[in-house]
Design brief:
The complex is a heterodimer of chains A (158) and B (89). By secondary structure, chain A is mostly helical. In chain A, 65% of the residues lie in helices and 0% in strands. In chain B, helix 2 crosses helix 3 and helix 3 crosses helix 4.
């Protein structure tokens, strides 16, 4: 993939922040609104992939390393499993929602029925949403980036 | 007709009968009430403190399912990186 025209690059520059903000919003409000880690991560990753397509993989190869993205992907997976193991540590069983009622943050329990959305609810679910979001962003972006590098850049290293 | 065509026709007929029978039996727009639905609707906010029931099911009640999905994504990324790696000759 080589660089695309000036028009495409300018439009990608303009729309990139909005796509990233929307993706991060969907990740952060996964426990209140439709969406979550997977969906918001897919939105944000498609924003990064749009920049990759507009600017070409040789430009992206100078800016970012595949190994760094792999580290973020593994960190997301470790965060997810780590949160589950903290449930085992504090609450007694795997995937226990240990932050509800007893935790420091996200500990508010809403009343049963129709209530207003409060960001400070839901226990460990926002943490898991964040971990999965980081994992999906890095994972989907690294898949497309590695394919682009293998097709166009001759000497690339991880 | 050859044996292969006969088997294919029989299989597709069975599949069509199963699909049509299922579609006829379900009443449109009115899913059956189950105990699981009522349990989740009544207890989600009290037990997990979450307003969104879907997120609760995905990350809390069915957490192992999401763990499997994350593992699948990890395996896909590992496979892609392994396939497109540089091999020294």
């Amino acid at each position: 993939m080589s660089q695309m025209s000036k028009i495409v690059r300018t439009l990608a520059n303009i729309t990139f922040p909005f796509i990233m903000i929307f993706g991060l919003y969907v990740i952060a409000h996964g426990h209140l609104t439709p969406g979550g880690g997977f969906q918001g991560g897919a939105v944000a990753a498609s924003g990064c992939i749009m920049l990759l397509v507009a600017y070409g993989s040789a430009w992206t190869y100078e800016k970012i390393k595949v190994s760094r993205l792999s580290v973020f992907e593994s960190l997301g997976a470790l965060g997810f499993i780590g949160t589950a193991f903290f449930g085992l540590l504090f609450g007694g069983y795997f995937f226990n929602n240990f932050l509800v009622r007893t935790g420091i943050i996200f500990n508010v329990v809403p009343e049963t029925g129709s209530t207003l959305a409060d960001f400070n609810t839901a226990g460990v679910l926002p943490l898991m949403n964040f971990a999965v979001g980081v994992k999906v962003i890095a994972g989907l972006f690294v898949i497309v980036l590695v394919m682009g590098l293998a097709s166009s850049v001759k000497e690339w290293k991880q | 007709m050859s044996l292969r065509t006969t088997v294919a026709v029989v299989m597709f007929s069975i599949l069509a009968v199963i699909l049509v029978a299922t579609a006829i039996q379900l009443s449109f727009g009115a899913p059956m009430k189950t105990e699981m639905d009522d349990y989740i609707i009544n207890n989600t906010q009290n037990q997990t403190g979450t307003n969104s029931g879907v997120t609760t099911i995905v990350f809390d009640y069915r957490g192992f399912d999401t763990l499997g999905e994350a593992t699948i994504l990890f395996a896909a990324v590992s496979g892609v990186i392994m396939i497109f790696r540089k091999v020294k000759k």
